[in-house]
Task: inverse folding
C-alpha cells in the first residue's frame, strides 16, 4: 500500500465528506432537535424546585445521551455510504487509487467529526437553556464537560456500528431503528446482565465514574472494563466495515 | 492491432437472474476504440469490470496486463467517466478537480498544475470557478472527463459521453475525444449506442449485443464481414421496368420491388459485389436512365443489425 498516496486520499476524503455532511439539509433537523431539547430543558428549569445538578444531569442523560445519541448516529451513519452509493457520488472514491479500506476510514472519521459536533451543539444548547435559568455553577460546567465527553465517546462507538450497516444492508435504517429502540432503549433498560450488553450501558458506566448527579451516577460497573469493551467493539466494527467495503461490488 | 491494453476471455457477469455479460471475449488495442451496442447490451457492465467496481463471475480480464478487481493501484493509470451524473453540484468545477486530485494522491503545486492543465484540455478554464449546479449538460460532461484526466491516466474510459448533449456540444466532445488521443496520447475506450457518432471518433469498434461481443476490428473489416449478407439497394430513374426484369434473371438477385410510379426500384441482392460489378452492363442492356443508386445497408447501423441478427 502506498502510504503517502493513501494519507493524502484520507485527508481529502475527511475534508469533503465532512463538508458534504455539514451542508446536507439534515442540519435543519439538528436545529429542530436543539430547539426541542432547549424547550424541554428550559421548561423543566422554570418549573423545577429540586437540585439543579440532579435535574440537569437527569435531562441530559435521558434526552441527549440515551435518546438522541443513538438516533442521530443512526440517521447520519446508516445513510452516509448508502446515500453515496444510491446517488452514485461514491464513484469518485471507488475509482481513485486509494485503498478502499482507507476510504472507509475516511467516511468513518468524517462521520465521527460531524456527529460529535452536532451532538455537542445539541448538548450545549440544552445545558445552556437549563442552567442559564437555574444558575451556572462550577459543577454545572463539569457536568457539561462530562456529558460532552460521553457524547463524543458514544459518537465514536455508534458511528462504527451504523456505518457498517450502511455498507452491508440495502435498507439499513430499519435494522438501525430496531437496534436503537429495541436493543439499546428497551433491552438496555432491563435490569440484570442482559442490559449490560448494550453500548449505552457501557457509556453510562463510564459516565458514572465522571458524573455524581442524576440517575447516571447509579449505574454500576467497572469503567475501565466498559471503556475496553467499547474500544474493542469499535475497532472490530471498523475492521468489519472496512473489509465489507473493500469487497463490495458497486454495480 | 497493437499490443492489447484490454484482454477479456470468456467473461460472464450476472446480477441475480439478469445477465450483464455473457461469455464475453475481446481484445482492445491502443488508440481510440468504440464500444457500440444498444441500451442494456452490457457496455456499462464491461466498463465497471475494467475499473474493478464489480468482478466477473467467470472468465479472465486483464487491463494493461493486470486484473482490475481489488487492484486500486491500477486506477492511477485508468480514468473513468461514467454515463451517469455523479458530480457534487454544490462544488465549483475547480473544487471538484481539487477533490479528484486529492483522491488520486495529488497535492500542493502539482495538484494546482494538474487542475489547470485538465481544465485547459477540456476547455473549461473559464467556467472553473462557477458552481457546477449551473453547468449545462455538455459542461458537466466535460467536467466529468476532466475529473477522469486529473491523474494523467494512460487509459480513459468514457461511457456514453455524448448522451444528452446538444449537436454543437456533441461535435465538440467528439473533437475532444479525438484530441485526447492524438494530441495528449491517451488511449480511449468510448461507448455509445449512437453508431455514426462512434464512427466519427474512431474506425476501431467492438459491437456488443446482449452481453456478447458480436464483432470487433476496424469498421472496414466489419463491413467485410457483411459480404455474405443480403443488401438492399435503391435505384432511382426512368425505364426501371426492363432493369427489374433483367435483374430477376441474375443469380445474385433475391428480390425486386418496383414503386407505383416506376421511378424507384429496391433490389435485394445476395452478393453485393457481383451486383455492383454488373450495374454498367445492366444499364447498357436495358437502356434505363439511372439518376441515383444507394445502399440502405452502407452504414454502421446496418452492419450492427446484420451481425447481431436483428
Result:
Amino acid at each position: 500500500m502506498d502510504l503517502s498516496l493513501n494519507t493524502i486520499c484520507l485527508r481529502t476524503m475527511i475534508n469533503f465528506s465532512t463538508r458534504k455532511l455539514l451542508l446536507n439539509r439534515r442540519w435543519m433537523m439538528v436545529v429542530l432537535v436543539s430547539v426541542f431539547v432547549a424547550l424541554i430543558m428550559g421548561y423543566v428549569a422554570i418549573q423545577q424546585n429540586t437540585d439543579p445538578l440532579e435535574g440537569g444531569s437527569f435531562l441530559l442523560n435521558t434526552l441527549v445521551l440515551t435518546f438522541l445519541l443513538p438516533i442521530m448516529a443512526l440517521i447520519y451513519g446508516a445513510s452516509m455510504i448508502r446515500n453515496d452509493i444510491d446517488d452514485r457520488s461514491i464513484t469518485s472514491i471507488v475509482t481513485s487509487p486509494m485503498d478502499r479500506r482507507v476510504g472507509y476510514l475516511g467516511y468513518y472519521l468524517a462521520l465521527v467529526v460531524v456527529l460529535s459536533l452536532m451532538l455537542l451543539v445539541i448538548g450545549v444548547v440544552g445545558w445552556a437553556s437549563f442552567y442559564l435559568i437555574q444558575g451556572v455553577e462550577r459543577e454545572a460546567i463539569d457536568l457539561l464537560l462530562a456529558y460532552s465527553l460521553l457524547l463524543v465517546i458514544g459518537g465514536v462507538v455508534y458511528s462504527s456500528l451504523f456505518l457498517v450497516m450502511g455498507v452491508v444492508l440495502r435498507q439499513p435504517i430499519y435494522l438501525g431503528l430496531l437496534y436503537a429502540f429495541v436493543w439499546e432503549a428497551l433491552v438496555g433498560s432491563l435490569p440484570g446482565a442482559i442490559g449490560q450488553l448494550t453500548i449505552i450501558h457501557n457509556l453510562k458506566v463510564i459516565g458514572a465514574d465522571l458524573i455524581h448527579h442524576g440517575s447516571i451516577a447509579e449505574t454500576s460497573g467497572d469503567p475501565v472494563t466498559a471503556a475496553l469493551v467499547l474500544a474493542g467493539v469499535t475497532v472490530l466494527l471498523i475492521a468489519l466495515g472496512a473489509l465489507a467495503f473493500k469487497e463490495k461490488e458497486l454495480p | 492491432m497493437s499490443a492489447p491494453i484490454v484482454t477479456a476471455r470468456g467473461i460472464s457477469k450476472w446480477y441475480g437472474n439478469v445477465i450483464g455479460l455473457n461469455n464475453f471475449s475481446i481484445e482492445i488495442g491502443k488508440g481510440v476504440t468504440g464500444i457500440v451496442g444498444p441500451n442494456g447490451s452490457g457496455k456499462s457492465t464491461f466498463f465497471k469490470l475494467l475499473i474493478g467496481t464489480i468482478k466477473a463471475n467467470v472468465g479472465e480480464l486483464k487491463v494493461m496486463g493486470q486484473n482490475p478487481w481489488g487492484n486500486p493501484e491500477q486506477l492511477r493509470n485508468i480514468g473513468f467517466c461514467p454515463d451517469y451524473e455523479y458530480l457534487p453540484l454544490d462544488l465549483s468545477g475547480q473544487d471538484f478537480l481539487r477533490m479528484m486530485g486529492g483522491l488520486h494522491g495529488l497535492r500542493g503545486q502539482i495538484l494546482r498544475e494538474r487542475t489547470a492543465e485538465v481544465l485547459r484540455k477540456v476547455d473549461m478554464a473559464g467556467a472553473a470557478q462557477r458552481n457546477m449546479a449551473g453547468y449545462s449538460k455538455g459542461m458537466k460532461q466535460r467536467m466529468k472527463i476532466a475529473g477522469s484526466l486529473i491523474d494523467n491516466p494512460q487509459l480513459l474510459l468514457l461511457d456514453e459521453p455524448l448522451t444528452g448533449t446538444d449537436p454543437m456540444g456533441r461535435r465538440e466532445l467528439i473533437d475532444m475525444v479525438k484530441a485526447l488521443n492524438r494530441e495528449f496520447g491517451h488511449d480511449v475506450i468510448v461507448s455509445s449506442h449512437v453508431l455514426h457518432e462512434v464512427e466519427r471518433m474512431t474506425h476501431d469498434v467492438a459491437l456488443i449485443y446482449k452481453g456478447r461481443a458480436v464483432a470487433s476490428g476496424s469498421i472496414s473489416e466489419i463491413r467485410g464481414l457483411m459480404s455474405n449478407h443480403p443488401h438492399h439497394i435503391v435505384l432511382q430513374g426512368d425505364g426501371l421496368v426492363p432493369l427489374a426484369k433483367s435483374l430477376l434473371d441474375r443469380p445474385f438477385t433475391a428480390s425486386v420491388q418496383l414503386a407505383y410510379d416506376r421511378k424507384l426500384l429496391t433490389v435485394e441482392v445476395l452478393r453485393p459485389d457481383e451486383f455492383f460489378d454488373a450495374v454498367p452492363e445492366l444499364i447498357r442492356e436495358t437502356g434505363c436512365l439511372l439518376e441515383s443508386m444507394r445502399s440502405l445497408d452502407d452504414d454502421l447501423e446496418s452492419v450492427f443489425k446484420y451481425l447481431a441478427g436483428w
